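Please, structure for the following, as tokens.
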Amino acid sequence: MVEKFDSKFHKDYVRGAGEIVPPAEVKIPEIIVIKRSFEEVLAEYRRYVRDPNAELPEDILKTL
């Protein structure tokens, strides 16, 4: 049986004999960013904390 290695380093590290086969290409999913208004974010936060008068924390406001 012929050993297969994913890199030259791996082959040298285990002192093996065989071919170097790079790993299959990994497909990274596309990230979709949904734009939301400040009011939508605030409404969602208020639902999350179950307080209809809550305000966003300062660190979140700085991020927005």
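The chain has a mean pLDDT of 87. Residues 3-63 form one domain.
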